[in-house]
């Protein structure tokens, strides 16, 4: 089985999948250099089963129908969440492939692609509440800026 771990970061979820399920993983992330992630995979002993790739979620360098599954843990909210995101990703799934997304912004299980919530409003509400509670903590300001930029359709 070939799995795309989309928004893999430093690769903890990719290492887990390779170890626990014995699958081939392509760990794709924009913010972490492929060389840095590859070093993590080699150190974890899964460098032969996990390939690190630097890629944007909306401009993937893969062939159509390349994966049996696409998973994304706690990063979907950072992708461009317009209606075109999921139909774009589905192109990379083989017949019968599965999408799996987990994010703190989703408040219910979604079964139909047309019903995908962005979660942006809930995330923004929470972040603003935290900022009011701790006004001296500057960490919230960039998140609020990202969530309100471009009419709420922030970039990758």
Summarize the structure.
The chain is an alpha/beta fold. The protein has helices spanning 12-21, 34-43, 85-90, 120-133, 140-148; strands at 2-6, 24-29, 50-54, 67-73, 93-102.
Can you walk through the features of this model?
With 156 residues, the chain is an alpha/beta fold. Helices cover 31% and strands 21% of the residues. It contains five helices and five strands; from the N terminus they run E-H-E-H-E-E-H-E-H-H. The two termini are 27 Å apart. The relative contact order is 0.14.
State the separation between the terminal residues, measured CA to CA.
Answer: 27 Å
Strand order in the largest sheet: 3-2-1-4-5
**In this structure, how is the largest beta sheet organized?**
5 strands, parallel
Report the mean per-residue pLDDT as an integer.
84
Number of strands: 5
What is the element string, with H for helices and E for strands?
EHEHEEHEHH
Give the % helix: 25-40%
In terms of structural class, how would the helical and strand content be classed?
alpha/beta
Oligomerization status of the protein chains: single chain
Which residues sit in consecutive blocks of at least 5 with pLDDT less than 50? none
Strand percentage, roughly? 15-25%
Count of DSSP H/I helices:
5
What is Rg?
17 Å
Shape: globular
